[in-house]
Write a structure and sequence with these properties.
The chain has 69 residues and is mainly alpha-helical. The chain contains three helices and no strands. Helices cover 29% and strands 0% of the residues.
Length: 69
């Protein structure tokens, strides 16, 4: 089974078309890849805001740009 993704998290292979970050990787690393991620993974953003003490997803107006991978 997949590890790390909570119930109702959605398709772990769904990826951001901009930076290629997958939902699985988002949960693994706890960090958005780019601005587009906030739209693709809007549900995760809301979840993180609601469960900000339970999850370690980094949410902010400024994200850390990652070049290469
Ligand atoms: Zn992205």
């Amino acid at each position: 089974m997949e590890q790390g993704l909570p119930d109702g998290a959605g398709d772990p292979e769904e990826a951001c078309p901009e930076c290629g970050l997958t939902r699985r990787k988002l949960y693994a690393e706890g960090q958005m890849g780019c601005a587009r991620c906030y739209q693709v993974f809007a549900a995760e953003v809301e979840r993180a805001l609601l469960e900000i003490h339970g999850k370690s997803i980094h949410i902010g107006k400024v994200w850390e740009a990652r070049d290469g991978g």
